[in-house]
């Protein structure tokens, strides 16, 4: 199953920010250059975690505040707690709905038919 199908489903469910945040965090964790890491951390924070972010993800206040403080000197694990939280949300909510959706069933049927 392609990542594109899941992303399309999340868009239809107004949950695409979760997968985008998770993917951005995965990319961030692979960064080794401190300047690149700092730039990516700032972008992630402003895109997904700032209270007025366009694609704000649903995390608790304490986690958000810890990340806000970590932005002064972001390390390789500053998003780990939020990333785990968002992953659990997708695992327990979005994924089960996706597997039951017409979109998934159609994709699965098309995949079987192409074999």
Give your account of this protein's structure.
The protein is mainly α and 115 residues long. It has a single domain, classed as Regulator of G-protein Signalling 4, domain 2 (Orthogonal Bundle), CATH 1.10.167. Helix content is 73%, strand content 0%. It has six helices and no strands. Helix 2 (16-29) packs across helix 5. The mean pLDDT is 83.
Shape: elongated
**Structural classification:** mainly alpha
Work out the strand percent.
Answer: under 5%
Domain count: the total is 1
Q: Write down the Rg.
A: 16 Å
Stretches with pLDDT under 50, minimum 5 residues: none
* End-to-end gap: 13 Å
The CATH superfamily name is: Regulator of G-protein Signalling 4, domain 2
Strand element count: 0
Q: Would you tell me the overall average pLDDT?
A: 83
CATH fold call: Regulator of G-protein Signalling 4, domain 2
Largest sheet features: none
Domain RGS: 7-108
InterPro entries: RGS, RGS_sf, RGS_subdomain_2
Protein name: RGS domain-containing protein
Pfam families: RGS (PF00615)
Task: Present the secondary structure layout.
Blueprint: H1 3-12, H2 16-29, H3 34-49, H4 61-70, H5 80-100, H6 102-114
Helix pairs in contact: 1-2, 2-3, 2-5
């Amino acid at each position: 199953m392609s990542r594109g199908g899941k992303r399309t489903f999340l868009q239809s469910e107004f949950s695409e920010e979760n997968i985008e945040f998770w993917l951005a965090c995965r990319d961030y964790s692979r960064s080794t250059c401190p300047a690149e890491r700092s730039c990516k951390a700032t972008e992630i924070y402003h895109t997904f975690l700032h209270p007025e972010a366009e694609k704000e993800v649903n995390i608790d206040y304490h986690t958000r505040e810890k990340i806000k403080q970590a932005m002064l000197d972001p390390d390789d694990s500053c998003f780990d707690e939020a990333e785990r939280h968002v992953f659990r949300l997708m695992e327990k909510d979005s994924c089960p709905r996706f597997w039951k959706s017409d979109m998934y069933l159609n994709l699965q049927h098309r995949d079987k038919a192409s074999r």
